[in-house]
Amino acid sequence: MSTSESSSASPGARVTFTPHPQLPDVALLTLSNPGKLNAVSVAMWQRLREVFEGLAEREPALRAVIVRGEGGCFVSGGDIEEFPAFRFDQARLRHFHEQIVAPALEAMYRCDIPLVAQIERACVGGGLEIACQCDLRIAGAGSRFGAPIARLGFPMAPDELAGVARVAGLATAAEILLEARLLDAPTVLQRGLVHRVVADDAVAAEAEATARRIAAGAPRAARLNKRTLRLVASQFHFSEAQRSELAAYASGPDHREGITAFIEKRAPQFTGQ
Amino acid sequence: MSTSESSSASPGARVTFTPHPQLPDVALLTLSNPGKLNAVSVAMWQRLREVFEGLAEREPALRAVIVRGEGGCFVSGGDIEEFPAFRFDQARLRHFHEQIVAPALEAMYRCDIPLVAQIERACVGGGLEIACQCDLRIAGAGSRFGAPIARLGFPMAPDELAGVARVAGLATAAEILLEARLLDAPTVLQRGLVHRVVADDAVAAEAEATARRIAAGAPRAARLNKRTLRLVASQFHFSEAQRSELAAYASGPDHREGITAFIEKRAPQFTGQ
Amino acid sequence: MSTSESSSASPGARVTFTPHPQLPDVALLTLSNPGKLNAVSVAMWQRLREVFEGLAEREPALRAVIVRGEGGCFVSGGDIEEFPAFRFDQARLRHFHEQIVAPALEAMYRCDIPLVAQIERACVGGGLEIACQCDLRIAGAGSRFGAPIARLGFPMAPDELAGVARVAGLATAAEILLEARLLDAPTVLQRGLVHRVVADDAVAAEAEATARRIAAGAPRAARLNKRTLRLVASQFHFSEAQRSELAAYASGPDHREGITAFIEKRAPQFTGQ
C-alpha cells in the first residue's frame, strides 16, 4: 500500500492514506485541514474519491480502513470559504454536490473494505456525511454531531441526505436539519447513529481494536457481507426533475445571506424568499 | 394567518389554527374535544386536512407549526362513540380510513412547513398517528404511547400503520399493536419514537424553543429538506386488492364486540371468527 | 393442536410444538439439541418450516406462539458439525441456505400468528435469525447476540441477512458481522433489537405474560396487523445473478479453513484468497 496525499487551495488541506503503523493489512485515512478543524475542501473530496474508488481491487490484502481527522478532531464540515466561488449558481452548485461530493461518498459506500470511523470532537456537515458511509462509528464522549446548514441558508443535498438518513433514520435526520442543533454523544448513541461511545482519549485505541477484530475475520466474508448489506439497503435514485427542483434555491437570497453572514461573522437575516 | 375552527357532532370538538402568541411566523394547531381527552372526531379529521392541505402555499412566511391538544393532553385516540355509525360495514369503514383519516395524515406529511408535536399525557391511536406525521416530537415524562385497538377488535388501517411504522419502526409498531400496551416516555425515547423527553410542565416551553430554533433557519432550506426526506422515505402504495382484503374484518363479530363492549364499559369476548 | 417432533442425525436434536400448559390458544415451539446449546441442525430447520407453513390456517383458534430453546438457552447457531458435509460446494451450499434455512425463516415471517421469542443466554447465528422472524423479543439480562461467522470464514446468506437487518438495522447488522462480536442485552435493547430485557430467571414469565396480552386482543386484528406490517416492510428480492455471486465463496480456502479450525479447536489462519 502506498502513501499518498493531495493539497487544495487551502494551504495544508490534504487527505493521506497510509498503512497503519501497528496493524498489518489495515490502513489509515486521515483528513486534514489545519486551522479549520479539518473542513473538507473540494480537493479533499476529490482525493477521497480517488482513494476509495477501486480500493478493494487495488489492495486485495487490505482488511480494514480507519477513517479519522488529524489532530484529535474528526471533520467540522465543508470548507465554507470556498463556497461563494460556486454555490450561488444552480449549475455550479449541482456540479459540486453531484460531481464532487456525491461520488466521493458513493466511493466510500461502494468500497467492500470495512471502514471504521474514529470520531473525535466535531462530526459535522460533510464530516457527518463521511462518517455515515463508514460501517462502524466509534465516538468520543465529547463529540458533537449535526449539520446546522439551515443557518447558512441551504438544505442538505439529496444524495448526501439519503446517506445520512440511511444510518441516522428519518426522524433524527429531520431533527438535525430542521433544528440545526448539534447532538451530543449520548444522544447519537441512543439513536443508533454511532456504535460505541468511549472516553475522548480512548477513541483511537477503540477504533484500532475494532479494526483488529475485523481483520481477524475472513476478508472475503467481510466483503461479501458489505455487498449483501448494500443490496438489502436497496438503491434509491432521485429523478432529474427532482434533482433540479431541489437545487433551485442556489441563487435565492437566503442562501447567499447565510453564507455571506457566516463569513462576515454576523447573524443572518432570512426572509424565506 | 387567520384563526379558524370547526365543530363536529361532539359538542365542543374542534381544531383551531392560530398564530403563536409570542413567536412570529409560527402557528399553533390545537386539537380539542372536551371531556374525551381530545379524541379525534370525523369533523376534526376533516378540519385537520383543510388546515394542512396547501398550507405552505397559503402561508409563505410560516416557518413552523406546533401541534398540540387542548388542556395539557395531546390526543387519546379516535372518537369511539362515533364508531358504531360507520365501522361495521366495509365500504363505510374504508371510506372513513381512506377518505377521512388518511388524507388528513397525508396532508400533514406532505406539508413542507416543519411540524413540532407537543406531546402531553395521552398520545394514543389517532393521536399517535398524528404525532408520527410531525417532524419533531417533544414528550412529557408522564406521556403514554400506543394504539390498544386490538382490545376494540380491529387492526390499524394500512395507511395509518405505514405512517406509524415509518417513525416507530416495524418492531415497535408490532409491539404496540399486538400487545396493545401503552409504552412510557423513557421507552419511546429509547426507541427513537420521540426526540426529547422533558418534565411534564416543560413540554410546551421545549416545543416553543424547538419552533424558535427551526424559525431561526432559512425557511426555504427547511421546506426543501422536508421534501428530500419524503423522497428518501420513498413512496409505498397498497394495491386495491390489498386494501380490500385488509378491510374485510369490518362486518366480523370481534370488531363489533370490541367496540360495543368498550361503549358498554364491559370486557370484550373475542372468538377469532 | 397436536404435539409433534422430529429428530435429526444429531441424537436428541428436535423441534417440538405443543399447546401451552397454562394458556389456552397459545403454543410453545421448543428448539432442542442437547449438548450443543440447541444449535439448529438441517432436520430442525426442516421441521421449523413444517410447523409454521400453513399454521394459521391449520390452527384457526391459535392466538400466539412462544418460541424458545430447551433448558434455559435459546439457540447458539447452526449445527457446525454438519457443515463440512455440504458447505464447500456452491450448489450444495445454496441448496442449504435457499431451500432449507430461508424457507423455514420465511414460513415464520409469513405466519400470521404472533410469535414471541423467549431469549435466554445464547441468541447467536441461526438463533439470531430465528429471533428476528418473531414479532416480540423478550431477553434475559445475561443473553448474548451475534453471528461471529466471519471467524468461521463465511458471510451471512442474503435472505438471512435481510431478515436480521430488517429488525436490527443496517448499522447493527454490519457491526455484528464485520466485528464478529457478541452484543450484550443492554446494547441490543438500546438498538431496538429486543423489546424488553428482564432478569434471566424472569424471561419465561415475561414471555408468557406477553403471549397472554396478545391473546387478550382480537385474533383477526392481530393477523391483519401482521399482514399489513409485512406489506409496509415491502418485499425485497435478490436476483439469481446476485445470489450466485454471493455464494461463490463456498469453495474458497478461508471458508474451509474457518470451519475446519473450529472443529479442530484451533485458531483459523485466513488469507483472503
Features:
homotrimer, 273 residues, alpha/beta, 2-enoyl-CoA Hydratase, Chain A, domain 1, 6-stranded mixed beta sheet
SSE map:
3 copies of one chain form a homotrimer.
Chain A: E1 14-19, E2 26-32, H1 42-52, H2 55-58, E3 64-69, H3 90-110, E4 115-119, E5 122-124, H4 126-131, E6 136-140, E7 144-146, H5 158-168, H6 170-179, E8 183-184, H7 185-190, E9 196-198, H8 203-215, H9 219-233, H10 240-247, H11 253-263
Parallel strand pairs in A: 2-3, 3-4, 4-6, 5-7, 6-9
Antiparallel strand pairs in A: 1-2, 7-8
Q: What does this protein structure show overall?
A:
Three copies of one chain form a homotrimer. Chain A has a single domain, classed as 2-enoyl-CoA Hydratase, Chain A, domain 1, CATH 3.90.226.10. Helices cover 42% and strands 15% of the residues of chain A. In chain A, the strands form two sheets. Chain A has a six-stranded mixed beta sheet, sandwiched between helices. In chain A, helix 3 links the parallel strand 3 and strand 4. The first copy, chain A, is globular, with a radius of gyration of 18 Å. The N terminus of chain A is likely disordered. At the A-C interface, helix 8 and helix 9 of A face helix 5, helix 6, helix 10 and helix 11 of C.
